[in-house]
Write a structure and sequence with these properties.
single chain; globular; mainly alpha; 5 helices; three-stranded antiparallel beta sheet
Length: 163
């Protein structure tokens, strides 16, 4: 069985342990195969440093997050720093079909640069981010539908073929 990290001062003060699967992946793979992957050891120092920074941010903000009240305050104080700690390159307040999702997240600077060069309102912008993210104030439930009707984010309509 894979060794689990012991609780230390750098363990996050969050309601989960070293392994919290929730049936997303095979427990056997997580416990026995994942530790054999080269990245498991190659990225250990980097991941431990990110975990320490994330823990520090959470310790600093955990008594504040419920009191920020507004989405922009929460984003500035907690969400944006956490995304950066996790290694994401981000563009804030992007444009997608007339809406403004909070973040386009990129794996690297060249992808971010290519999206910016395409233009924030151009459909080609979305060829480059790895993921789209939207943030809410701490008290806002993420499980409730925002409104009735079809999703507001979706594939762009296909362009008419040029003659």
């Amino acid at each position: 069985m894979a060794r689990r990290r012991r609780q230390t001062e750098t363990t996050p003060l969050l309601p989960f342990g070293a392994l919290s699967n929730c049936d997303l992946l095979s427990n056997h793979w997580l416990e026995h195969r994942l530790p054999l992957e080269p990245e498991w050891t190659e990225l250990r120092v980097e991941s431990d440093a990110a975990l320490a920074r994330a823990t520090g941010l959470w310790r600093q903000e955990r008594s504040r997050v419920e009191r920020y009240g507004s989405e922009p305050s929460m984003e500035q104080a907690f969400i944006q720093p956490m995304l950066e700690i996790l290694g994401w390159k981000l563009v804030y307040q992007t444009w997608l079909q007339g809406r403004k999702p909070d973040y386009a997240l990129f794996l690297d600077d060249p992808s971010k640069d290519a999206a910016i060069a395409a233009g924030r309102q151009a459909p080609e912008f979305w060829n480059h981010p790895a993921i789209l993210a939207d943030a809410k104030a701490w008290h806002v439930s993420l499980d409730r539908p925002a409104r009735e009707g079809p999703p507001t984010y979706g594939p762009f309509p296909k362009k008419a073929k040029e003659k």
